[in-house]
Amino acid sequence: MLPRLILLLLAPLLSTGFSPAATFLGQQASSRLFGSILPKDFKNGMTITVEGEPNKIVEFSHSKQARGAASTNARFKNLVTGNTLTKTIKASESFDPAQIDRVDAQHTYQEDGTFYFMDAESFEEISCDGKVVEDVRDWMVEGMNLQLVKFGDRVIDFVLPSKMELTVVETEPNFKGNKDSVTKPAVLSCGATITIPGFVEQGEAVLVDMDKKQYISRAEKTSR
């Protein structure tokens, strides 16, 4: 009796082509696309749609003339072509979030200019050309966990960990009496070069802020 009653209640909706599943999926799609990004919301590294393609905000600055409207000067990197674009944007202009996927992965190895990664969920091997890695090549360490940014089936960018522990492999020796304000360049185990305090010695492990690519502190020593 109950199933027949449910069918009678749904009959008017079904006759008009109503589909609960389609409605739910439609709500999911619309919520995924809802909301525009204004220049005041910009952040370095944010990925938005510019002229129909995913672009990463490289840098930006807001300005306002005495009697003029506010504007934003921004430089974007097209994550499909690799080209950069500089635009002056009105405060009222808006952009859609880029329709990209982020995949948790581990960098396994590189060979002949190609970088290889393992999908952390499916264990599938994913590869990409070294040109895509260019901006973060010096920070790529085999075995590191990161996120791959994909546009369709193509890897277009990377999200590195917020912090990395790396070893100082080359730097000037620490001289007795060096103050905390003394700094020096240091080559890290990943190949990148940063500025560190003068008291940090070669062979020590340090923490690096990956957003700013800056020294944070010495890494804590773990007891064995």
UniProtKB/TrEMBL annotation:
Q: Repeat: present as a keyword of the record?
A: no
The signal peptide here is 1-21
Compartments annotated for it: namely: Cytoplasm; Plastid, Chloroplast
What's one Pfam family here?
Answer: EFP_N
**Which pathway?**
Protein biosynthesis; polypeptide chain elongation
- Which residues are in the Translation elongation factor P/YeiP central domain? 102-156
User: Which SUPFAM superfamilies does the annotation name?
Assistant: Nucleic acid-binding proteins (SSF50249), Translation proteins SH3-like domain (SSF50104)
| Keyword Chloroplast included in the entry's annotation | yes
Supply the alphabetized keyword list. Answer: Chloroplast, Cytoplasm, Elongation factor, Plastid, Protein biosynthesis, Signal
| Chief localization | cytoplasm
Q: For the Elongation factor P C-terminal domain, which residue ranges apply?
A: 164-218
Q: What's the domain of life for this entry? A: Eukaryota
Give the protein family. Belongs to the elongation factor P family.
Its recorded name reads: Elongation factor P
**Organism whose genome encodes this protein:** Tetraparma gracilis
